[in-house]
């Protein structure tokens, strides 16, 4: 058993099954999984997906009973996702990917916080302002963000995103997300995934391959995320505890308008 100490919570990961267990009255409201065959419409080589191989498991609405009212008051939820090690054919296992919908009475869509608890993540982020229209998506920015254990990122408004296991073992990450945020999957399914596929070469290196279903894929910037204490983004500090101790810090998840520059600048540091 591996204790997910980065989370600051009593959660262990089985080294055999990669399932999570919750201790000390920490509760998880629901859990589920997605097998590789359910990913067919999102893969570079769809014919290679198995019905029994799990691609990822998700655990939703994790909290201590005494913290539930804080999450409810802010309409936020803390979830954990475990992406299995390995590839489907040679594509790294990943989540489906989606866009977030518009915030009521706002010209922005919802952001979200991700925190890597174990392993190494690669997040593909593509900015598409016309995601909700049935027309060719126009990608105005493309980022490949490598996030290590203990680090976190904010998905800025308008960025379609998927999470990829870029490490050798399982990838475990948490998200702090707005419960009532609408999710758009269709525009990504129609294009057979986001605009970049992460594939393993024979030497183990990851190569980013453009998805030919998009008309124009901009050159991606390779990004290593930055920190901002005012946004509750401090590497090595648990997001769960940051939120439950200072819930107002994360008000930008429902009202990002005044924080866009700060949010975007966290993803500006390329190497
Ligand atoms: O919804 P997708 O794209 O399959 O991604 C899965 C993960 O994304 C989240 O919805 C967070 O955005 C997690 O709760 C979930 O496990």
List the helices and strands and how they pair.
Elements: E1 2-3, E2 11-13, E3 20-22, E4 26-35, E5 54-64, H1 68-73, E6 76-83, E7 87-88, E8 91-92, E9 99-100, E10 112-118, E11 120-128, E12 139-148, E13 152-155, E14 159-165, E15 171-178, E16 183-184, H2 186-190, E17 196-200, E18 206-210, E19 221-223, H3 239-245, H4 260-265
Bound molecules: 6-O-phosphono-beta-D-fructofuranose.
Give a written overview of the molecule.
- This protein is mainly beta.
- The protein has one domain (2-265): Jelly Rolls (Sandwich), CATH 2.60.120.
- It contains 4 helices and 19 strands.
- It has helices at residues 68-73, 186-190, 239-245, 260-265, and strands spanning 2-3, 11-13, 20-22, 26-35, 54-64, 76-83, 87-88, 91-92, 99-100, 112-118, 120-128, 139-148, 152-155, 159-165, 171-178, 183-184, 196-200, 206-210, 221-223.
- A hairpin with a 2-residue loop joins strand 7 (87-88) and strand 8 (91-92).
- The protein is globular, with a radius of gyration of 18 Å.
- The two termini are 35 Å apart.
- 41% of the residues are buried.
- The model has no long low-confidence stretch (mean pLDDT 95).
- Bound molecules: 6-O-phosphono-beta-D-fructofuranose (F6P).
- The site of 6-O-phosphono-beta-D-fructofuranose has 11 residues, from strand 5, strand 6 and strand 15.
- Residues 58, 60, 79, 81, 95-98, 112, 175, 177 line the site of 6-O-phosphono-beta-D-fructofuranose (F6P).
